């Protein structure tokens, strides 16, 4: 089997369109199409379904694509071994994440990484999950970190870590609404100040499901804001009930600035590593991710 044909198939499958791959590789579209056709002919299987919208992997094509990822990553590692000590960990470390992941989970690891590799410059983009996906697909960053998993054909996900959630409210609001039991108190709190929701969460299947599991019904909404940091600030000001990653509010719970409402089964959400399929990571990117994996094992 011709390795060059495999490479062409791999690049086309990543892009999802012959036209995009042809522009990126500066090869004619007809030459790319012919290479993939010859690969399919020699293998005796159909690897891509073609349409006006682009190409999609067949079931057999998906298997071949995963093997191609292993092959070309191995080739890259062989090149690294051959270069040996000549390769220096330097240059930009480009990543994207949501604001609370950067503020609570990445600042210290990035600082420690810079101390050990002073020639590496972290370039951190902060955005919503959809914006993180777009940055990864456009190669504006090497990888992203997000608690939301947005299904996109060209994106690969790896679960790095799992974080529990906490339901919190300002302690004075809780005391003002004190009832005969926790359920009655929480109901009074929600009637008075409402729930602090992410913008658009009520219209999302996952968001609605989570709220139903916590409250048994859709709570009255007091605020809708675009980020968890904003939810936390509003909650600290007494503006409502918030359901936040525990790492964000653990200190405030301990020092009494927030009251944690006990729930039977708090949700645990996975932190996802977001990469573009087939993307070969830079040395700074690989080393930093190896540290995160070791930290959260």
From TrEMBL:
SUPFAM superfamilies: Periplasmic binding protein-like II, Winged helix' DNA-binding domain
InterPro entries according to UniProt: LysR_HTH_N (IPR000847), LysR_subst-bd (IPR005119), WH-like_DNA-bd_sf (IPR036388), WH_DNA-bd_sf (IPR036390)
Domain of life: Bacteria
TM ranges: none
Domain HTH lysR-type: 1-58
Alphabetical keyword list: DNA-binding, Transcription, Transcription regulation
Gene3D superfamilies named in the record: 3.40.190.290, Winged helix-like DNA-binding domain superfamily/Winged helix DNA-binding domain
Protein name: LysR family transcriptional regulator
